[in-house]
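Handoff note, outgoing to incoming analyst
You'll be picking up this chain. Sequence as last confirmed:
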Amino acid sequence: MKSLLPIIFLIPVFIFATEETDERKVSDLSINELKEIVRLIVEESIEQCTVTGTMEGRAKVNLKVEGEVVAKMTCDFEKE
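Most recent structure output, in case you need it:
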């Protein structure tokens, strides 16, 4: 997870490097602009991840899980 944070914050640099450069600093962004940037970064990061795992117990129709779920999220940021 610690290695994911620097990648998350570097993705906008690569995304916006090919587009017209916005010279504003983070402190100049509105809260909504910053939220949208973070949302975009998280969505693009999660798209490169897979989740595998096991569950012991049961899941009700309303998707409430009763039991234990063990999952592992694996992300590969080396692919293009």
